[in-house]
Amino acid sequence: MFKGYVLRCGTLSRWMFRGCRHYSQKCAIQGNEEVSKHVSFIRNFGLLAHIDAGKTTTTERMLYYAGSISSMGEVHHGNTVTDYMEEERLRGITISSVAVTFMWNKHRFNLIDTPGHIDFTMEVEQTLGVLDGVVILLDGSAGVEAQTLTVWRQADRYAIPSVIYVNKMDRRDADFSMCVDSLHIKLGTLPLPVQLPVYESGSGSNFKGVIDLITLDKLIWDISKQGLTYKRIRLDPGEELWKEASCARAKLVEQLADLDDNLAELVIQQESLEFVPSNALMESLRRVTLAKQGVPVLCGSSYKNVGVQSLMDAVIHFLPSPSDCSKHLLNCFGSNLVARAFKVIHDDQKGPVTFFRIFSGKFNKGQKIYNITQGKTEQTGKLMVAFADESEEVSEVDHGNIAAITGLKHTTVGDLVTSNASTASAAQKKLLKLRGVGEKTDTNDLFGISTRIPDPVFFCSIEPPSKSYQLALEHALQELQREDPSLHVSQNEETGQTVLGGMGELHLEIIKNRILSEYKIDVELGDLQIAYKETINNVVKDTHTVNHKIGSSTHSVTVTLSLLPNDSEERELLLLDESPDSAANIAAISFKHLHAVKLGVESAMAHGPKLCCPIVNVQVMLHWLEVGKGTSDTIISASVAQCIRKLLEVDGTHLLEPVMNLQVVTNEQNSSAVLADLSRRRAVIQEMSSRGHSKVFDILAPLSELLGYSTDLRTITSGTASFTLEFHCYQPMSLQDEAKAIKSVTGFV
Length: 749
Ligand code: GDP
Ligand code: MG
What we know:
This protein is of the alpha+beta class. Helix content is 34%, strand content 29%. The chain has an 8-stranded antiparallel β-sheet. Helix 8 (240-259) packs across helix 10 (278-290).
């Protein structure tokens, strides 16, 4: 029998903290100086999950066990460090809710918070661009949920390695193997369980710890001390759990050996799956996780203070450090500063605070920076690092880390910055040479820094309470847009009204609340309008000739264009006809004239003939262009736009509407009422499944039928059901629905 022993988790840093907060922070900074030389000791990671899976609760535990806070808050008491509750948004977001830095086991953790609600999906995207790894949380009783799938796909798009943490294992209906299966079935990934839950007797509330499959130890938490300590007890081969655990370990080794040659060799040498040493298994898991061939799966109950420390250890063991994921693109900057802004917030006292991930070099206090994306030099103000409940000014922040900077007026999310313009142009030259591309390549494309700004699905007008607030409102919207590029602001040319475009009802509601609470302007929002789009029915082709006499000069253009339906994702808007009839004419078009043609195409595609909505899923082919001597570029653009408008009007367009992925979770008693209501909303049921005593409906439904759905669902189910809503695609409408939509927008058919 092995004797149990007690691990004291984060004892040193907690002890430092107890004496005095500033001492604790100083230690963290000294720690920073110590580890900054070893980038391999940094972990920049985020927690991603479906709403309510326990992100905030888990973050709070991590900060407590690391010694960054002296007591734990709870979500239902509203006293957690990183909560994103609406109330907190209304009070103004604290800096620490964006990124918190703390030390764990000699490593510097930069935990970057990502908002949970799908309306803030843009913020999640921005954050992913600067993370090296993610922990994806599941609710142990639900497995993979609608938004788990969304965040998983997002992390996948950025090729970010992940670890899965199955939380809420204390719930009676928690089911670890169901969660593992759902990872495989719904995410199509290879789950690699590295732990099994341990129940004292029975299940659910008797959840006491986990079996570490790598070492075959049982880890039992002392929940009377808020889970600060846990016992690590070697499993005894006579124990019932031993058999289950050693089978699970052998399966893990087998799965890894299939993916990892190093481990396969070891297994062949030893002629057994059983005797692979723990350290070889850990190393193999790390390689497989970093290569995104599989995901380690852990479990715990953050609320009951079980399992969080082993999750933190897993962050160290399995997730990459900045040096594991060096961005090749950025290597052309050598050791010079290069950093990317991923978040801007407006703090009452500090003004705009811009958060950067530093990829190479370092930020020095008060230095100038050159914004590559915008081609502007800016003066920085204070340089800060965010700790649990306050930010601290520092003199420098080194590469691999997160810095918060005040005083920047132009830099916005997604921008890439360096120390000065000459560093930027030297790096650009190196990159052009490396890539073998022409000088004309767009800087942002070259550095891969164009961000995906999602199209809005809702619009509404916004009015200040009186004309005297107009300027203040414009200023507020400008600041809010810098924080959140998914907020679209435009002017309606006919009515002169300011129009907001957003990702959902909640998104626009929160913008309204923030304008009131932070800028003290009591704005009025108009009715929500759906963002429809238009597309064409058939291929159409025509020639358009313009002859204009302006003063003494004549401007003449003859252009032949065709419009082609095309709904594939990767498509160029403008195609050039290379057939023998056109090739010579097209080849002779100057770069300047081609640019004017492009502008004309873009302008004509912005408003369709039916409802003035953008034209999508269409390509324009240029067959012929003749330009008379002295013709201005504006006339070329206008002629192209006129030609396209004529083609669109002659053949007509049809409307496309946004269709949403809706997932409703309800109890059985209310399920038929929920379905009956959905049938009135043009909903198409994709899947019906059971989860414990609940029913889960996955549905596709047009956004126009879902206005106010949260209130209706609450009424039907007396508040017992929940739902998530996410944009799915644009779909053509039936003639009847199209007529209804036109009537609701214009007031007549
Ligand atoms: P978030 O939306 O992902 O940030 O989730 P929160 O941390 O706000 O948690 C949502 C709710 O689940 C809160 O009421 C928490 O107290 C509760 N919760 C979090 N972790 C656990 C857990 O391990 N077990 C149980 N039973 N409840 C939990
Ligand atoms: Mg939360």
